[in-house]
Amino acid sequence: MRAVIPGTFLFVVMVCGCAEDPPQPVTSKAIYTGAEACATCHLEAYKEWHGSLHLRSMQVPSVETVRGDFRQNNTYTYRGMTSRMFVREGTYFMETDGADGKRGVYPIEYAIGDRDTQWYLTTLEGGRIQVLPAYWDVREQTWFDPVEGLFDHPQGFAPGDVNYWTNFGRNWNFQCHDCHASQIKKNYDPETGTYATHWTDLSINCETCHGPGGQHVTFWKALPDQVPARDTTLVNLQFLSSEQSVEVCAQCHAHKRIIKEGYQPGDPFYDFYELEVLDSEKFWADGRYRELNYNTLAFLMSSCYTAGHLTCAGCHDSHHLGPVRGEGETRAATYDRVCLNCHRVDVGEPVERHSNHKTVGCVDCHMPPVEEVKRIGIYDHRILSPVPENTVRFGIPNACNECHSDQTPNWAASWVKTWWGSQADEVAQTEAIVLGRMGDPKALDGLIVLSKDQSMVLRASAAVLLGRQADERAEKALIDALGDPHPMVRTRAIEGLMGHGSDAGIEAVAERLDDSSRLVRIRAASMLEGVNLSGDRGNKLSESLTEYRTIVTGLLADDPEAQVQVGIEALQQGDDRAGEIAFRQALKVWPGMADAYAGLGTVFVRNRQFSEAVKMWREAAARDSTLVVPLHHACELWEADIRERFRTRPGTARDYTDLGDTYTLRDSLDVAIYWYRKAIESDPNYAVPYHNLALVCAEAGREVEAEAALDRYRQIARDANAVRELEMLIRERRKRQGG
């Protein structure tokens, strides 16, 4: 979730319960035993799990677990970066470029994945577990760089990129930990910037889906002959609602943000997580994936779930994960059989009479592979009929043309209409999201319709997009959405209403400060921070703000985007100090974050520390060229402040140098040169203007003047390293100019 800077400056089933006696969440301290404790009594289930991808989600390297070739085909070069994989005395290593670009040898401590790709991890300073740069393609039996098919970054990664392997974007503790080990405690210390991450099992273990097993083990050891219905210390998935059952899988199989650790199956999911919805460009407007987004959100939009109450376990065996294939049965036949369990009447047999195709199965049309995600076998869980008209109008891929690539989307749309009739409703739904993302007023009617849809994903998406509609009907729909039964819809309605900013909207949001869902409460609190509420509502706001701040300064302290958003909210409420703390915390996690520098620039401008503001905006603009305009504005403010000094005292060499800098940063090089020369006239022994003059003259192609300034800087500068650095910078500028 990228922070937006506003204004000029900121932007399975273990039968331990029964239908009459459903399990309740365990209220006492959770005691986890690990998967091995389950094997004694549940051997068959344990064996099935032991052969599953859940076991192999993360493993210690060994001959049995490592899929990559570390002995023969063990060197890989991509865009000038070479990695060499090898084994020494039973330990696996990768030799590659490090944080400083120099070669290093890194022990491989963990391996992630097994079916499609395998990634390798090492631990760096501060407990940071990092994903190493060379990955193994299990199917193609070759090494590859993550740029090739997983990340959209065609130049390859350099040490300054967020997704370079030593940096924040490839940090397991933040990015991957909750889905590749069990019962994780991240244990990030914001003061030291270090991790002491702890887990129960390096796998997705039994207790991830059934809850903590400590009481269960104690119970059965003490009372081995007790009636099973008496034991409700574990969760039996068949007795959960369809929503709760899917949420157990969504712990991992969803694009989400964690707001609290410690979720147990059956708990209120949105007390622990927040899902992304279709305002995000990570999804096509019809809900299909545009990148690696996992399956939950799309599945929650499917009519199989919304109308048929299908759960993940309806198609996937809860322990070995895939559908159980019959003897001699092909993969396509297996999936057709699973689908026909529900669709035998409306589809009939054979399937080809419904599909008008002899050689395809249900999943080929309704769950095509996600081509945008290379090397990883992912299938669209939206479970839609193909809608080629969405390709014609919005460029969204469709299953027909993925097979019939020699034909046009118009051709496919014509056949779909001939065989199955109009798809006007599906197209209208997609159009509402497309236009809503752009804030187009023509989206309003469609978004209001979606705000009442059966799918909570569409209702939540409509809510946040209605916030971009400047219309009273949009506000009314959002106030209505605050009463929606689903926490995600209420949360997004709060966001939408605060975009309108009316008194009625604020009043309605204040009603949600004591919402039953933690996610709704903290979103209401964050949106109302700084609003003057009296009496009981003021007390509730204070309580919810405390809850919100505990989350963002604790669990989310290593999330730079969350910290920037906190900083923005603080500045909007006039709390510059809190904003500065949040922006600096973001930079502690990721020193290359442009929005955090922009936030600090805003803090310094508001406090009339213009030279510091310009430094921050310069850093921001170096990382995001769209921030050049506010950099120039900060330079203008700095210039005005310097000139104001001249009213009360004569200018100094430092003043004139600063003026020169304001023009350098605005690319007014001739004016900058004038002020640097004036600084030198004022104090011929002040080294800084010679340094800056040499650089600017080199940039302007004035070589003689640049060399003269450099010579004088060599004579008076006391720092030999600074001289060498200046010489290097001048050489680089000449090289860029072809000199």
Mean pLDDT, as a whole number?
89
Backbone CA Rg: 30 Å
Sheet of most strands: 6 strands, antiparallel
Q: Give the N-to-C terminal Cα separation.
A: 44 Å
Fourth CATH level, the homologous superfamily of the domain at 562-569 and 576-736? Tetratricopeptide repeat domain
SS-derived structural category: alpha+beta
Q: Unreliable runs, pLDDT <50, ≥5 residues?
A: 1-28
Q: How would you classify the quaternary structure? A: single chain
Q: How helix-rich are the residues, as a percent range?
A: 40-55%
CATH architecture type of the domain at 562-569 and 576-736: Alpha Horseshoe
Assign the CATH class of the domain at 562-569 and 576-736: Mainly Alpha
What name does CATH use for the topology of the domain at 562-569 and 576-736?
A: Serine Threonine Protein Phosphatase 5, Tetratricopeptide repeat
Structure description:
It is built from 31 helices and 14 strands. The protein is α+β, with helices and mostly antiparallel strands and 739 residues long. The strands form 4 sheets. Strands 1, 6, 7, 8, 9 and 10 form a 6-stranded antiparallel sheet that branches. The chain has a 4-stranded antiparallel sheet with strand order 2-3-4-5, with no helix packed on it. Helix 14 runs parallel beside helix 16 and helix 26 packs antiparallel against helix 27. It is globular and about 90 Å long. The N terminus is likely disordered.
